[in-house]
Design a protein that fits this description.
This protein is of the alpha+beta class. Helix content is about 30%, strand content about 25%. It has helices at about 1-10, 20-35, 90-105, 125-135, 180-195, 235-245, 275-280, 295-300, 330-345, and strands spanning about 40-45, 45-50, 55-60, 80, 85, 110-115, 140, 150-155, 155-165, 170, 205-210, 220, 220-230, 255-265, 290, 305-310, 315, 325. The relative contact order is 0.19.
Amino acid sequence: MVEALRLLVEAESFSTDPEGLERCAGVIDDLCRTVLGTGTTPAGAHRVWRRNGDRPVLLLCHFDTVWPPGTLAAFPFEVDDGVARGPGTFDMKAGIVQCVEALRQVPDGPVTVLFTADEEIGSPTSRPLIEDEARVARAVLVLEPAARTAVKVARKGTGTYRVEVTGRAAHAGLAPEEGVNAAVELARQVEGIGGLADPAAGTTVTVTMLGGGTAANVVPESAWCTVDVRMWTDEEADRVDAAMAALRPSLDGAELRVTGGLNRGPLEREASEALYRRLVALGYDVGAAEVGGASDGNLTAALGVPTLDGLGAVGAGAHARDEHVMIDEMAPRAEMVARLVADLLADG
């Protein structure tokens, strides 16, 4: 399993690097062929492994990472004192290795695995594939990293908006009064947008990037910002979405344009509860975590399909230079997934 992890990590697979993604997909194909006896099927940049039958168990993995090509030069794959380090080890290439090993232990029954190539950028091309497969599945198991050792029974939904302001340019020294200052308008909007957060409900609304203007001596005729939104419930998603759509300019002559919206609805606990109880009944008291980040499990839960997340690697440091995996946990986590898959398949 460690050698398979090394091969995957050293096949760098940044979300927007097609050549790297294709190389990594080739490693996954070889891994499936070697361990499971059959390779994967291409679906665009993504890969599908399938054992046919009615109402399969669907397992979700993604092999894209947030690390640009060349990261390995300064952050190589290393194993030291039971810890594997390197870009993508924790999020989520160890989960891929554990997924394949789990299915080796369950040689019969209908199973589908999706290895997707764009989860880190919002799953723009894999989403239809994920949703189509989920609609015919009996359950979805997501091999994203664990929260310490806990599985993830709830995730916040996410949304991203862009607010663009159009004003009117003017000379900042000679006739500033003839302009409509887009930066001033944006500043007023930013304050109001931040006020849409509801800490008591766990809803965050955060302006993350902004810019505007063309020159130091010109009243800016344009300005923009992006807004990250996260929430626990569909009701909060609808509230914030309506408020963003209702934004109006405060300065005469200014115009506003709001684009974007909800990317993934919340994975609410009711979607995971039965699967979590099933895992506990099998003897796994791993804990249940509710987390702010989203995954492809949000997409399947939104369809009403039972979904349990965080079944992958134990470690820490996702998206950071201390990203690492606890090697001693890899085989037990694979066995846990295998037992859960077998238990689901036993329902017939």
